[in-house]
Design goal:
Length: 246
């Protein structure tokens, strides 16, 4: 990170790529994560590499859901751990959520490495190592979750999630918040709250909204959730990407 000059016009993008590379080297990110990063980077370029207003609305609604939740869980994969470990730990702290490692390419070594990495960045308790429950209607390995974590959560934040798993979680009746730069991907399409923004900007902004809403009563939080227009947010992001209007 030290080698990238801060005044470089693509500073954020280079920083992001560098973090994924480091994640692969450290054994917390799968090589596939590099491809996911590349796709995300292309969409972010077309969005102007900024949080568009409809994404900010989604981030506020996400904060309201997390604050209202009985048992919120933030799901962590290899890209999320490489990009925003401390930010995820901070959000978990602010909304009183669990962190759970949840991998598409699951190996005990990678789960351990990610859990350690999160703890190094301030996480207290990391779930996902027990894996004593299954998400129904998913291939065995891909479905493993903690019984007292994602399995029983009422609200789940799943950044950069695979489409099949996002659908299966939706079918379990969970309130699902998805962060994904591609508004056409299945994961944001099935989300209650699709956040079309770079996770690097999205997580700190959700945390900031949560801090501001910390004293809001239940009625106010419900109002924010009611007012959020998920179809509108998806259409808005798609329009922005297609327009080429930066
Ligand atoms: P599928 O159609 O199976 O969902 P996909 O192209 O969406 O395939 P995945 O690997 O499942 O690929 O998902 C990666 C997703 O994460 C992509 O939609 C990509 O845009 C998004 N993404 C990558 N990096 C970021 C990031 N930093 N912030 C937000 N979203 C990102
Ligand atoms: Mg996808």
């Amino acid at each position: 990170e030290e080698e990238i000059p801060e005044d470089h016009p693509r500073y954020q993008d280079l920083l992001t790529r560098h973090r994924i590379e480091r994640g692969v080297e450290k054994g917390i990110t799968h090589l596939q994560g590099m491809h996911a990063e590349g796709r995300g980077s292309a969409f972010d370029y077309l969005l102007g590499e900024e949080t568009i207003p409809s994404a900010d609305d989604a981030e506020r609604a996400a904060a309201a859901h997390l604050l209202l939740a009985e048992h919120p869980v933030l799901s962590i994969n290899g890209n999320v751990a490489a990009l925003v470990p401390g930010e995820m730990a901070e959000l978990a702290d602010v909304v009183n959520a669990d962190l759970e490692v949840n991998l598409f390419n699951r190996t005990p070594e990678r789960i351990e490495a990610i859990a350690d990495h999160l703890r190094e960045h301030g996480a207290d308790d990391v779930k996902g190592l027990t894996a004593d429950a299954h998400i129904p209607n998913l291939e065995h390995e891909r479905s493993k979750v903690d019984a007292d974590g994602i399995y029983e959560a009422d609200v789940v934040l799943v950044p950069l999630e695979d489409g099949d798993r996002a659908e299966a979680l939706d079918e379990m009746g969970k309130i699902e918040i998805v962060i994904d730069l591609n508004p056409l991907s299945r994961s944001p399409q099935v989300a209650d709250v699709p956040v079309v923004d770079n996770i690097i900007r999205a997580i700190p902004n959700i945390t900031e909204h949560a801090r501001r809403l910390a004293d809001a009563d239940e009625a106010e939080l419900r109002e924010i959730i009611e007012a959020f227009d998920r179809e509108g947010a998806l259409e808005d992001a798609e329009e922005r990407i297609r327009s080429g209007d930066l």
